Amino acid sequence: MKPVPAPLSAEDDLRSAETQAGAFQAVREARRSELAEDYVELIAELIAHFGEARPVDIASRLGVTAPTVAKTLDRLARDGLVMRARYRSVFLTDQGRALAEECRVRHDIVVRFLIRLGLDAETAEQDAEGIEHHVSARTLALFAAFAERRGQPETR
Amino acid sequence: MKPVPAPLSAEDDLRSAETQAGAFQAVREARRSELAEDYVELIAELIAHFGEARPVDIASRLGVTAPTVAKTLDRLARDGLVMRARYRSVFLTDQGRALAEECRVRHDIVVRFLIRLGLDAETAEQDAEGIEHHVSARTLALFAAFAERRGQPETR
DNA sequence: GTATCAAGTTAGCACCGTCTAACTTTTCAT
DNA sequence: ATGAAAAGTTAGACGGTGCTAACTTGATAC
Ligand SMILES: [Mn+2]
Ligand SMILES: [Mn+2]
Ligand SMILES: [Mn+2]
Ligand SMILES: [Mn+2]
After folding, report:
1. CB distance A24–B142 less than 8 Å?
2. Which pick of A8, B50, B94, B135 has the fewest CB atoms within 10 Å?
């Protein structure tokens, strides 16, 4: 059957198929880089705090197994984000370091924003870990401005 | 080498490995349901506005090909969210309808929240499409409260 | 009624991200 | 120096999400 104009009640209009498809394509694109972003950000953290990033620590902090980490690190190396040597710790390339720094800044903005909104720190960290990958530059700017605002948090 | 306590400067402390792993696990869990959520929400929209949800329309609004939609719909049917008959439109099960409604409400809250923050409607829709899947109940409540607030939007 | 065209399906491929099991290498304590 | 434990690697499996090419079915126009 062909679509019928509207079934008696069509309160709000739909966006155009193209516009909607654009949004979904952007989300799929973001999903493709999420894992890489989390890895390089975590690797940078480990290097900053422990001097090196060992696969075993990456695994335990991500909550995945060692072979999963190994395979993912190989992909990241292939993509020019990390450098590896067998049985050694992992290091970031310049490109990896740049991405990590960008992610760290963005992550912190999202966390501070959520806390300023009134969320507890623990939940803020949890939600930020997912939200951060789907925040456009414009939105990030608004988050940053809100987070920096003077005055008490939005207590409820 | 074993991790050394700290490399001269360890300004901020790291969270425990377990806590951090918990956050990442929650994100991975959310990722597993993202696609299903987008599908049932879209199917509900199409049914509400056109009386039926045809695979070809699902495909064009998601920006993917017809075979991709077919395979995904089979998975959704397997998981009890939709019902299909060969060469026919797709329908939601009770479970699918319930999930779709939940997603619709959540999607709208996120969009209205972003707009209230000062974002343009177009970008709000784009970002919401990704963010919605990573918003906890607590955060959603804060978003809703902020969106409903009296007064002018946060113009910048 | 039949030809055509749109929609739907099937088969097959590729890559990602996860796991377990089994193996190798390195590190460390004695 | 050596043996045990920890860390790392490899192989193989599996499900998810995307694609193209080729086929089948259904809807439409004449
Ligand atoms: Mn993250
Ligand atoms: Mn992060
Ligand atoms: Mn979505
Ligand atoms: Mn949505």
Report:
1. no
2. A8
Interface test with B, best of A2, A4, A24, A104 (most B CBs within 10 A): A24
Å from the A67 CA to the C20 C1': 10
Task: Give B13-66 pLDDT, tens digit per residue.
Answer: 889 999 999 999 999 999 999 999 999 999 999 999 999 999 999 999 999 999
CA pair distance A86, B88, nearest whole angstrom: 54
Tokens at A117, concatenated: 């909104």
How far does the centroid of ligand 1 lie from the alpha carbon of residue A78, in Å?
A: 21
As a whole number of angstroms, the distance between CA A55 and CA A86 comes to 11
Name the pTM for this structure: 0.92
- Asked if B20 and A64 touch (Cβ cutoff 8 Å), the reply is no
Cα–Cα distance between A115 and B24 in angstroms, integer? 19
Every domain of chain A and the residues it spans: 28-148
A with B: how many residue pairs have Cβ under 8 Å apart?
163
State the pLDDT confidence band at A6, using cuts at 50, 70 and 90.
Answer: very low
Strands A82-83 and A91-92: antiparallel
List, in sequence order, every beta strand (DSSP E) within B79-131. 82-83, 91-92
Which top CATH class is B28-148?
mainly alpha
Residue A124 predicted with pLDDT over 60: yes
